[in-house]
């Protein structure tokens, strides 16, 4: 996708051919700054600090983290994979990518691991970009059908599931970009997504850069717009989908799904194959939910009137804060899943029909 007319993927190799370049997403949308990651430690920090975030992108960056580590410590493959796997607990893409690297590298002599790791990491990144392009193709007919009936399409999304959360295109935003590029009159309600405001900062930044009409709303306003017929469809991303179709996504997604069900608004979830976790059945009981720092709730960061980034406290002094980063939406509230292989019901049968290889 493009920023100020320049095409970017969300990660790429530096000119040296081995270190990794990323956009520092903690500074967007106020400043576009490119970081160079030259060690596994820097990769781990980028993931935990959310300089990179979004389940598919985390997996791709972690894969390159393994490759960078193989330059100096190919004998430490097991330790590096296990250590990077602990950086974020909820998104399954991280462990999927690391398991793929480990399976590819473990049988090899240590002298061959570096080259193989870079090749495998590049394959993961390319696969994610193509996967997200196909998700957009399979989601596009949903928006075309609404446009044929109503003219304008109003989409509500939560958090950031665009190209900044993936290698390119995005998951939930991919159908929106493809609809806009096809000339469909589409408008996006962008949840702010407290406490880190990924919607207000990142999704709005992406949509604005692409020219897609959008409006940022408070997290709790979505139900109001649904009640008044201002939302035609909800499309969100996800960090993990269980074999029965339960969906883990950014905190607040569950409440949007409840409001959508009460107002008969279709609630679709866009995901790549790497987000499926067929080892888990009951998402509410079995998916680990990351608890992040209370400071993300108690404080906000943004530019003041002079443009200087400033951190302010927004809660009463001395008050405790809890910060679960994700919640789980049960499959019964999900209209369907949009994948690179097509659309399906959020059910064991639906997923098995599209992914018989994974169901087995």
From TrEMBL:
Gene Ontology BP terms: L-methionine salvage from methylthioadenosine
Site (Transition state stabilizer): 159
EC number: 5.3.1.23
Record bears the keyword Nucleus: no
Gene3D superfamilies, per database record: translation initiation factor eif-2b, domain 1, Translation initiation factor eif-2b, domain 2
Record: active site: 239
InterPro entries on file: IF-2B-related, IF-M1Pi, IF_2B-like_C, Initiation_fac_2B_a/b/d, M1Pi_N, NagB/RpiA_transferase-like
GO MF annotations in UniProt: S-methyl-5-thioribose-1-phosphate isomerase activity
Reactions this protein catalyses: 5-deoxy-alpha-D-ribose 1-phosphate = 5-deoxy-D-ribulose 1-phosphate; 5-(methylsulfanyl)-alpha-D-ribose 1-phosphate = 5-(methylsulfanyl)-D-ribulose 1-phosphate
Pathway involvement of the protein, from the record: Amino-acid biosynthesis; L-methionine biosynthesis via salvage pathway; L-methionine from S-methyl-5-thio-alpha-D-ribose 1-phosphate: step 1/6
Assigned keywords, A-Z: Amino-acid biosynthesis, Isomerase, Methionine biosynthesis
Highest rank taxon of the organism: Bacteria
Binding residue positions for substrate: 53-55, 88, 198, 249-250
Coiled-coil parts of chain: none
Role according to the record: Catalyzes the interconversion of methylthioribose-1-phosphate (MTR-1-P) into methylthioribulose-1-phosphate (MTRu-1-P). Also catalyzes the interconversion of 5-deoxyribose 1-phosphate and 5-deoxyribulose 1-phosphate. Part of a bifunctional DHAP-shunt salvage pathway for SAM by-products.
HAMAP family associated with the record: Salvage_MtnA
Family: Belongs to the EIF-2B alpha/beta/delta subunits family. MtnA subfamily.
Protein name per Swiss-Prot or TrEMBL: Methylthioribose-1-phosphate isomerase
Species annotation: Rhodovarius crocodyli
């Amino acid at each position: 996708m493009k920023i100020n007319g320049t095409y970017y993927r969300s990660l790429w190799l530096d000119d040296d051919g081995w270190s990794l370049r990323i956009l520092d997403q903690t500074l967007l949308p106020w400043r576009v700054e490119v970081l160079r990651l030259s060690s596994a430690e820097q990769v781990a920090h980028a993931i935990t600090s959310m300089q990179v975030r979004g389940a598919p992108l985390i997996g791709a960056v972690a894969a390159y983290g393994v490759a960078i580590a193989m330059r100096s410590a190919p004998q430490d493959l097991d330790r590096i994979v296990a250590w990077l796997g602990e950086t974020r607990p909820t998104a399954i893409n991280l462990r999927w990518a690391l398991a793929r690297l480990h399976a590819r590298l473990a049988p090899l002599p240590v002298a061959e691991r570096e080259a193989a790791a870079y090749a495998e990491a590049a394959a993961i990144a390319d696969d994610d970009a193509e996967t997200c392009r196909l998700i957009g193709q399979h989601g596009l007919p949903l928006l075309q059908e609404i446009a044929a009936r109503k003219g304008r399409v109003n989409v509500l999304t939560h958090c950031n599931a665009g190209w900044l959360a993936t290698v390119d295109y995005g998951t939930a935003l991919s159908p929106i970009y493809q609809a806009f590029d096809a000339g469909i009159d589409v408008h996006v309600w962008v949840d702010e997504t407290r406490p880190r405001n990924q919607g207000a900062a990142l999704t709005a930044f992406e949509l604005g850069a692409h020219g897609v009409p959008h409006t940022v709303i408070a997290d709790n306003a979505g139900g109001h717009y649904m009640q008044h017929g201002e939302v035609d469809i909800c499309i969100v991303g996800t960090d993990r989908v269980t074999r029965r179709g339960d969906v883990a996504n950014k905190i607040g997604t569950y409440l949007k799904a409840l409001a959508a069900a009460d107002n008969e608004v279709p609630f679709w979830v866009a995901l790549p194959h790497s987000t499926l976790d067929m080892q888990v059945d009951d998402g509410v009981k079995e998916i680990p939910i990351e608890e992040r720092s209370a400071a993300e709730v108690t404080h906000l960061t943004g530019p003041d009137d002079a443009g200087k980034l400033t951190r302010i406290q927004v809660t009463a002094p001395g008050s405790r804060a809890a910060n679960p980063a994700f919640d789980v939406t049960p499959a019964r509230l999900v209209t369907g899943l949009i994948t690179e292989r097509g659309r399906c019901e959020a059910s064991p049968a639906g997923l098995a029909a599209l992914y018989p290889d994974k169901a087995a």
